Amino acid sequence: MKQTPYLFLLPSILFLAFTSLYPICYSIYYSFFNWRWGDEKDFIGLSNYLTLLTDKEFWIVIKNTFIFAFFACFFEITIGVILAIYIDRIKIGSTIIRTILLIPLMVSGISVTMIFKVMLDNMFGIIPYFLSFVGIKSNFFGSYTAAMPTIIGLDIWWQTSFVFIIILAGLKSIPNEPIEAARMDGASEWEITRHIRLPMIRSLLFLVLIFRSIDTLKVFDIVWGTTAGGPGLATEALQTYAYRVAFSFLEMSKSMTVMVLFSIVVIFLTLLYSRLNKDL
Amino acid sequence: MKKFILSILSFSILFSFSAANAFDWKAHSGKTITILMNEHPVLDGIRSLISEFEEDTGIKVKVNALAEDLYFDRMEVNLRGAKGADAHFCPMDATAFNQFGAGLLQPLNGFLDDPSATHPGYDVNDFPAGFLNATNFPGGPGSNYYCIPMSFESYIVFYNKDLVNKYLGGKLPETMDELIAMANKVKADSGGDVAGAVMRGLRTDTNIDTISGLVFNAWGDRPIEGPYGVWFDGDWSKPRLDDPAIQKGLSDYAGLMTAGPSDILSYNWNEAGNAFCAGQAAFFADASLFGPWFETDDCPAVKGNTGYMALPPQTKGGTSYTANWQWGIGMGANAQEKDAGWYFIQYMTDKHAEPKIGTFHGGAGRLSTWENDDYTSTLNPDYVSATLESMKTVRTSVVPVQDFNKYALEIMDVILRIHGGASSADATAEGNANFQNM
Amino acid sequence: MKKIQKHKHLISAYIVSFFAIAFTLLPITWLFMLSIKSKGETFTKPPKWIFDPTVNNYVKLWENDLFKDTFFNSIYITIISIVLSVTIALFAAYALKIYNIKFKTAFMQWLLLAYMLPEFLFVLPMFTIYQTIGIYDTYVGMAIIYQVHVLPFSIWMLRSFLDEIPKEIDDAAIIDGCGPLQAIFKIYLPLIIPGIVATAILNGIWVWNELAIALGLTFFDSQPITVGVASFRGYASIDWGGMTSSAIIAILPMVLFAAFAQKHIVKGLTLGSVKG
Asked: What's the DSSP call for residue B394?
């Protein structure tokens, strides 16, 4: 039956259309109105966009989000790759090590926030307690300057395994011959890593970058659960900001405008990555 | 003759029976209601009475309790869904006003005026008119009550007696400036071991009531014109944050924050209260209803060690002023079990339950409760006298205008700017400008 | 010389592993320790190492109506999401493998975009229409919206597993005269059971841990465990017993998965990424 393939794809298309196209269209539509969860729904054209793009606060949120994404990705990828390189050497016990290191990835974002809220609590937390021994009076979530690094730290604890697992699998699938040959030639371990291993997993590295970069831009759980964007606006990210605008200020149209703008960025990045990936 | 008397007798017995049966606590037995509540001492009180309620009415209760800032978000979602909770914690201020304006709340007069729905002896007028009128909308004749008060709070100062003795030689401040200086002294002298004061330092609009307390204290006996509140000069287009009294009040708040712990910027009332409860602060200026909590076993560091005083006046021997606010219980227009929900509301707010729940929060609404020894005897007498004294000059912190929470957030931003080093003149001038833009 | 070198590298690998494991496990251990402390022993300065363990916090959780419901709600939502995604994806993956679809590239691109979209985008639009259709705050409603993320992933996964099946089997199926439905269920499905398991597990983990969408589209009837844990959140909630014990309950099933199904999870993550 010639229609079979399309019939088989139909459920996917229907579900995806409903769950992805409909929300985008709805959000774009209402971003041109002034809906505040009441009966008032007046067309106001590009007013929401103009208000947002000239709002100092909005740009702070954007800045925060990109700073978070940049540093979180940087550390997660670096640490994840380094971890993978080391653990690639291990044969005995590597399964157990891998299993244990997998655990943070299995934990939900809200649970991660609970863990670190209690550990970093200024008054009763275990880590400030240890820091006080070396004379550091610490202040994690409550400090304008330390809050963002703390949140980045949470994401590192949580998501580095993602990089680690994928890169490790990539390293393990590298054929042995070139490595043995290089060893025979007297190359050092570091040289082997730099000139053979890393280049061969180049596409995996790029892949990991794609996933982590977009994922970190979408940060919600760990910010919302700990500082809720505070102190002040120090850790407010795009999705937490959209949430606050919607549910604290009831400005539904404005919130959807934020999400439309954000989605445009995400879509752009995704398409860019796809194009780059093809060229790689 | 006998027959006549007999018939009269039986008729009157029948009549009194039917009168007694006009209201029946078990009328809705078998139903289940869902209530949405904030984690709060009032809820602890309610929880203590739920099994009694379930037994007396046969109505099963499902409690959905959330920590406060999440509660505020969820309450709004709840009221706008197709099906909502049958009773919820009602902030009796502009929030409720906005919800009323959007048609989200169930008017309660229909229940109150119906003898088969409300038990005789409920006596809603036992609540002071000022409390009930906070959610009497739209105001004036023909209005409806939308929430029944469950607890009121006025803003007072708690102090840790041991810490005051240790660092201040047992001397208490007699003016607000003295309080700020002493709190900062405690912080300095203790080497940061304990905080001089704890306050709500989190950037949120919900601090407005405590803030109002300090601002009213600086405002003194100047009149405040409603509905504009102290923040506007008789007109919504004329904010007056830069009024010297308001500048002083906001600076007072920031001054107390300076005596606070290093992470004060992340403190909501939970953390501030917890810090005081754990003996980590000498002073705590906030809602009176924390008093009973500090006297429980959950706070071994301050149990029996807590002092209570009204906000110190601006001048020695002057009058202290403060603000008041209420939590109440209300019902959404989208409640599914309205009649059973009303039973819950009236049960938890009647003369029988209020003294019991009141011992958890010390802010009972009914006048009769304050005369009830069961209630007052459970409270620290200093607490009772400090609260009652503050009630003499208390004013509502509520400003019934659409979106007041945005203004409230800006006011907190002014305080944060002052705390961060700006002059009060600059910070309030910026505040005025932002008010104009809203 | 070479032997010592080799050992040096292995030793450093084990040292690194040790620190990584400690760094990973200590926070979770501390969380667990707090969950078995009574309230008075939790808020001590300095923190207590030796204390009387108690299961009180867990008992309180079980008596907490809201939390108990959320646990089971999560189970239902997760199962329905998995079944839905795997079923739809199986047909789509088969179609993509066997047939020459004209819009294949565009379709794959769409999958990637749908997968990447930010979660909060869906909350407000779906809030209204879900209420109208009547699937707001239902298990099915949640399973449907979750497809936007788990369906693309499932299609990639199943497709890459199907791709591993040698062409001879494809040819054999044609020769046998199998219709597509028969082919899927009698030939291909049995061969990719490991792939289906991996997909199911990874989807299950994502759904179980999801928060933002759940916050928007569930309330009394179907709120999942993430919302249950979040209900203990205040800016500085003081119910550490509830916070920690609820978090442990939320983490436990996932940790068990990691322990018993790690091979599947790893294969799934790597394949899913490579083919994505």
From this structure: E
Residue of A37, A230, A233 with shortest CB distance to B80: A37
Q: Is residue A250 part of a domain?
A: yes
Smallest CA–CA distance, residue B41 to chain C, in Å, is: 13
Name the more confident of A231 and A76. A76
CA–CA dist B53, B119 (Å, integer) = 14
Q: How far apart are CA B404 and CA B436, in angstroms?
A: 13
Residue C9: which residues within 8 A CB-CB, separation 6 or more?
A89, A189
Q: How far is CA B236 from the centre of its chain?
A: 26
Phi-psi region of A43 (alpha: psi -120 to 50; beta: other; left: phi over 0): beta
Residue A77 has pLDDT above 50, yes or no: yes
Domains belonging to chain C, first-starting first, are 62-269 (1.10.3720.10)
Pull the structure tokens for residue B400.
């019934």
- Round the CA-based radius of gyration of chain A to a whole number and report it: 23
ipTM: 0.89
Please tell me the distance from the alpha carbon of residue A108 to that of residue A118, in angstroms, as a whole number.
16
Determine the average pLDDT of the residues in A219-234: 82
CA–chain centroid gap for A55, Å, is 25
pLDDT of residue B368: 86
**Strands B394-396 and B322-330: what pairing?**
parallel
CB C148 within 8 A of CB C85: no
Q: In total, how many domains does chain A have? A: 1
Region A153-163: mean pLDDT is 95
Instruction: Please give, rounded to a whole number of angstroms, the shortest distance from the CA of C220 to a CA of chain A.
Output: 18
The end-to-end CA distance of chain C, in Å, is: 44
Of B293 and A138, more confident: B293
Q: Is A240 on the interface with B (CB under 8 A)?
A: no
| Residue A23 within a domain | no
Contact predicate A141/A117, CB 8 Å: yes
Q: Do the Cβ atoms of C91 and A8 come closer than 8 Å?
A: yes
E strand or H helix that includes residue B136 = strand B136-137
Q: In terms of C-beta density within 10 A (0-12 exposed, 13-18 middle, 19 or more buried), how is residue A109 classed?
A: buried
Comparing alpha-carbon positions, the chain A residue that sits nearest to B407 is A249
**C-chain residue closest to B78, CA distance:** C219
Q: How confident is the model at residue C181 (pLDDT cuts 50, 70, 90)?
A: confident
Name the percent of chain C lying above pLDDT 70.
Answer: 93
Domain, as residue range, for A234 = 36-279
**Domain-located, residue A152:** yes
- pLDDT of the residue at C242: 83
Q: Residue type at A187? A: A
Q: Which helix (H) or strand (E) holds A271?
A: helix A252-279
| Gap between the Cα atoms of B359 and B48, Å rounded | 11
Give the closest residue to C214 by CA, choosing from A136, A221, B173, B319: A221
CATH number assigned to the domain comprising residue A208? 1.10.3720.10
Range with lowest mean pLDDT among A259-263, B34-38, C40-44: C40-44
Half-sphere exposure of C134 (CA within 13 A, CB side): 0
Highest mean pLDDT: which range of B99-108, B260-269, B384-393: B99-108
- Residue A17 in domain: no
Amino acid at B379: L
For B201, nearest residue in chain A (alpha carbons): A231
